[in-house]
Amino acid sequence: MNHVRSKFPEGFLWGGATAANQVEGGFYEGNKGMNIADVLPGGKERLKILLSPGFDFKIDKEKYSYPNHEAIDFYHRYQEDIALFAEMGFKVYRMSIAWTRIFPNGNELEPNEDGLAFYDRVFDELHKHGIEPVVTISHYEMPVNLVTEYGGWRSREVVTFFERYVKAIFSRYQGKVKYWMTFNEINSGLHFPIMGLGFAIQKEEDKYQPTFQAYHHQFVASSTAVKLCREMMPDAQIGCMILYAPVYAYDCNPENVMYALREQQLFNYFCADVQVRGEYPAFIKRYFKEHNIKLAIQEGDLELIKENTVDYIGFSYYMSRTEKKVKSAEEAAQGNILSGVRNPFLKASDWGWEIDPTGLRISLNELYDRYRIPLFVVENGLGAIDTVEEDGTINDAYRIDYLRDHIKAMREAIEDGVELMGYTSWGCIDLVSMSTGEFSKRYGLIYVDKHDDGSGTLERKKKKSFFWYKNVIATNGEEL
User: Backbone dihedral region of 329: left (phi > 0), alpha (psi from -120 to 50 degrees) or beta?
Assistant: First the structure.
């Protein structure tokens, strides 16, 4: 039999992805409130500071810089940026709504009209260029007031506030947004709860109970959003969104294989199981028993979760993860934010993230085999140092190589039988890095003249990858 190269399906959703807190800026404008991203210090020590006991969610400009406050000023430049996305041929643009633009403190009774009107303008501009928005409802930017006054997602009251927020945006944008996702990288809270769950773990031994209680509240909130979407926008699709990193055993030692399996279940499958299958999996029930976790579950919660499962799985893919049961500090994969040990078969990025295109094919197969619903790669990209040449060009061939190899892996997965909706490259325009708060860690196909010291004109420039990706989209992935 002749081998026939698989093709991306007609109507495949090519595009790019960003998050409100990493591109918008406009910190003081439109009656916006302060969110978690607004209090994150810039620099390589960002996550270390956030994960240290006693982080107080306050701004200290004498001690730190706060690059998210201006970011790349999408708030004022969205028309210019969307025109560039359209020039590349985007079918979709994955973005998020900043909760604090709609409810500045999170617990108001009525939404902020200035915030609602801003996203009206953004959605209208996208549609003018034939681009469908793919909207994440909550992307690492919980209102700080809900963190300091309620304890973040530890509080059941936050479910009510989230429902009010969801009703407001669904009501306003039901004719403008067809694709929604509830919580960005919901499973990431297991590693950095401040971003995803809205609270800091003070002591290692105290982390289990509040973490999983917070997750239960998020599952109830996510299911509530799915229910509202079906009621208010029956033609729309709503998905969950997870951070997926396949877990490899370091070797064939059964102890290491079993350890890798448990890590795979806990990190990659737990949150997806609840949101896709509609119930807590058996492995997590054992985990709860072993860690003495007792969830406060209200009447009707489990039924709500069971009856309101998602339409598709959106996920980010940056790296795989290699694990062994007992590892030394010398073996650690230093750059991988999900820990693990170094994989001797993989190279790493400038920031130490191991590059593994085959891992994306593995991920797509694992997810589709387990859940049998459509998948959507909504984040994938390379953070790297870019150089502007004397003639103004940015020759990021390394980024093209990275994206090409991952798109090839997707094409192979499609031939494997995976139902894949689309692909939105992460940081289609340079932005503030979530993990380090740096501008120098550039992901974009579009360069933004903004630097770690705060200098820069904010001028946009097309990188070599801009023109390459434009052709990829124009040929529906045939020419890579």
Answer: alpha
Report the Cα 417 to chain-centroid distance in Å: 25
- The greatest distance separating any two alpha carbons of the chain, rounded to the nearest whole angstrom, comes to 68
Residue pointed to by tokens 């020759």: 395
Quickly count: other Cβ atoms within 10 Å of residue 388's Cβ. 13
Cβ proximity of 67 and 125 under 8 Å: no
Domains of the chain: 13-474 (3.20.20.80)
Nearest 5°: CA angle at 345, between 478 and 437?
A: 75
Q: What is the chain's length?
A: 480
Q: Which helix (H) or strand (E) holds 20?
A: helix 20-23
Q: Which residues are catalytic?
A: 379
Placement of tokens 């325009």 in the chain: 429
Contact call for residues 94 and 475 (beta carbons, < 8 A) = no
Residue 1 has pLDDT above 60, yes or no: no
Which pair of tokens denotes residue 159?
Answer: 């479910």
Q: Do 349 and 366 touch, CB atoms closer than 8 A?
A: no
Give 238's contacts (C-beta < 8 A, 6+ positions apart): 179, 180, 181, 182, 225, 226, 229, 230, 310, 311
The conformational region for residue 49 under phi > 0 = left, psi -120 to 50 = alpha, else beta, is alpha
Give SS3 for 94: strand
Q: Provide the pLDDT for residue 336.
A: 58
Q: Model's pTM, two decimal places?
A: 0.96
Q: Helix, strand or coil for residue 238?
A: strand
Instruction: State pLDDT tens for residues 312-343.
Output: 999 999 999 999 999 887 777 666 567 789 99
